[in-house]
Each structure stands twice: as structure tokens, then as C-alpha cells.
Amino acid sequence: MSSVRRPGPAPRRKSSRPGPAPRRSPRGADPAIHNVALIGAGRIGQPIIGHLVRHGFTVFANDADAGKREAIEQRGATWADLPGIARHAEAVLVCVGYDRELRDLIANGLVGGLSRGTILAVLSTVNPATVQELEQLARPFGVHVVDAAMCRGGRAADAGTMLSFVAGDPEAVERLKPVIAAYSTDIVYTGATGTAQAAKAANNLLMWACLIANHEALALARRFGLDEELLRDALLKTGAENGVLRNWGTSTMAWADDDLEIIQAMARQVRLALPQADLNRELCRALKPRKFQLDHYGDEPWPKR
Q1: What's 188's DSSP letter?
Q2: Are residues 242 and 136 in the same domain?
Q3: Do 14 and 78 meet the contact criterion of CB atoms below 8 Å apart?
Q4: Which of 86, 106, 234, 279 places its Cα 20 to 30 Å from the Cα of 222?
């Protein structure tokens, strides 16, 4: 399932004064979403705010770091505390960095403060079980949980070209699609809640494996006198082509360990051995401080199996 983004109105700058009164229609009378809240205004969340504003949504935002308030308001959103978000939002997008942060929001009563019919979408990369637990908790409150994991990273967030895996109740997903389309050029429906996170985990498993394989291939070639850029350009025209190789030198590896920790936990939950993922986590830890330094790749110490 995919969606085409339509250009929205020009960005609106907001001051630190209270924002405009949100438009609210009786739930069920107008299925369109006008008021969107975002929790977690980090590297990905901030550009998403800008895209939502440009597409005509009234946006409220919050971050655990109050120092991000100015950046939020510069992008056209209104800073709001969590009770304010609960009052105004028809859709709440959670874009925190870690599974534990999502669990903290749940423990602090996020769901209970939302109105019936609100959509609560999890954009963060978390364990599928966490989103499934959230769905069970939200159901008695009439809150619809949509699993909405994102791929392609910071550059795509800036450009509004994310790929979003979405899962959950089809009617809730359909209602949320114009919101997701504000920052995504591709929307893929994966099925029941939790499957979008599983799809994101598969993406991450392949991505980090490719990063390591690319280092090893290019380091080996360099030791035999090949020009790495000549080889990389050629490999992008073969079956060895991969996105990490195409964007060589740009990954910060900031999320490698957390991504692979989630993958390992998922594998334990279903009693699935993933020996390469286990090794890749060790290799990523060793690689991170010297990533893309091919002259030093393969130097000791490296993990021993």
C-alpha cells in the first residue's frame, strides 16, 4: 500500500506565544485528522514536524529535553506538555529513541489521557512485543494503536522520503495515511500490530550486516592495490549493490547496538538462533570508533569466536 504526497502550504513560523486553537470535529463526524502531536523531537522528529506543518496540519510537540522547544517552534509547531497533547491531538506520533522511553510514556499514563478515537502511532524502533502490549492497554480506552516504523534515516527524514512500514487496524491505518504521507514517499502495510517493527528489524539486520561486509570487501581490495572508489562504483552495478555501499561513508552507527539488541531479544522470544546477528553486534561495537578507516580495518583487537 503506498501513498503519494501532495505539496502543502508554505511553512508557518510560530512564536512562543500560545498556538492557535485546534480544529476539532466530533469523532465519527469527520474522519480527517487535523491536529497532530509528536512526542520526541530528535534527529528524525524535528524534520517530521516541519513536513507535517507544510502539509497543513496543526502540530503540537513535546520532548523530554525542554531545550528543544525553540527548535520545535521554529519548525511551526506549538510546544505542549503531555496533558496538552492529550487534549488537542487526534493523532499522536511517538518518535522517542528507545524502547524504554516508550515504556516510560506508557507507565506515566499517556494512553489514559487520550480521547476515545485518538490514533497513537509508534514511529520509534522498538520490540514488537512493546507495541502489542501498548495495543492491549489502549483498547479499553478506545485508542487505536498503529505500528508505524520508519526506514531510510536522517537524510530521508529531511527530504520527506521515508519508507514507513505500518501495521494495525486497517481503518485506523487508512485514516492515518495522510499524516504518514507528509514525511513518507512509500507506505507498506504489513498486517497485525508488531509486524511493522518486525519488518524494520529485518531491514536493520541486513543494513548492519552490509556495513560490515562492505568494510571487509573494500579493505581487502585496498590491500591488493585496488582503488576503493573505482571498485565501489563498479560493485553498485552488480549483485553486490546495497544501500549502505551506495551511501558509503555517511552512517554514524549511532543506533547499531540498540538495533541489534532488539533483534537479539526478538530472536530469543521465538527461540530462533541468529549467529550472524550475534557476531555482527560484536563487530559493530569494535568497528564504530574506526568506521570507514579502511587502512585500519582488520587490525587487532577484534572479537574472537
Answers
A1: E
A2: no
A3: yes
A4: 279
The one-letter amino acid at 79: W
Pairing relation of β-strands 91-94 and 119-122? Answer: parallel
Of 35, 132, 16, 123, which Cα lies nearest the Cα of 86?
35
Cβ proximity of 127 and 101 under 8 Å: no
pLDDT digits (tens, 9 = 90+) for 115-135: 999 999 999 999 999 999 999
Q: Cell 524535528 sits at which residue?
A: 46
Residue type, 298: G
Query: Residue 279 pLDDT > 80, yes or no?
Result: yes
The three cell numbers of residue 214 are: 562492505
| CA 63 – CA 115 distance, rounded (Å) | 21
Parallel, antiparallel, or unpaired: how do β-strands 144-147 and 119-122 relate? Answer: parallel
99 with 213, same domain? no
Q: Which residue has the cell 506538555?
A: 81
- Read off the pLDDT of residues 45-82 as tens digits, 9 standing for 90 and up: 999 999 999 999 999 999 999 999 999 999 999 999 99
Res. 169: pLDDT tops 90: yes
How far apart, in whole angstroms, are the C-alpha atoms of residue 189 and residue 170? 9
Contact 82, 110 (CB under 8 A): yes
Q: Is 270 helix (H, G, I), strand (E, B) or coil?
A: coil
| pTM of the complete model | 0.86
Average pLDDT, the chain: 90
**Residues 106 and 127 both lie in one domain:** yes
Q: 203 and 186 in one domain?
A: no
